[in-house]
Amino acid sequence: xxxxxxxxxxxxxxxxPLPFREGQAVTVSVQPSLExxxxxxxxxxxxxxxxxxxxxxxxxxxxERAIEERKHPPQRKGAFDEE
Length: 83
Description:
By secondary structure, the protein is of the alpha+beta class. It has helices at 42-52, 57-69; strands at 5-8, 11-14. A two-stranded antiparallel ribbon has the order 1-2.
C-alpha cells in the first residue's frame, strides 16, 4: 500500500485515512515523493526507478549478451595517427 503524506517534525500526516484499526502496529518505509523532487535529482531518479518495479531477469541477461556481442578489441592505432 502506498500513501502520500507530509512530514511535520517527527510526524507524518497522511492525506487520507488508513484502513487499519487505531493502535495497530505497522511497518513504514519512507521516500521522497517524485512530485516534490527536482528533475534530475538523486531523489527523482530513485523514485522513478522504484516506480518501474522489478525488471525481468531474462531482460537483464539479454541486455548483457547484447553488450558482450558488440564489444570490439582495443585498437593500437589512434584516431589521429597517420597511416
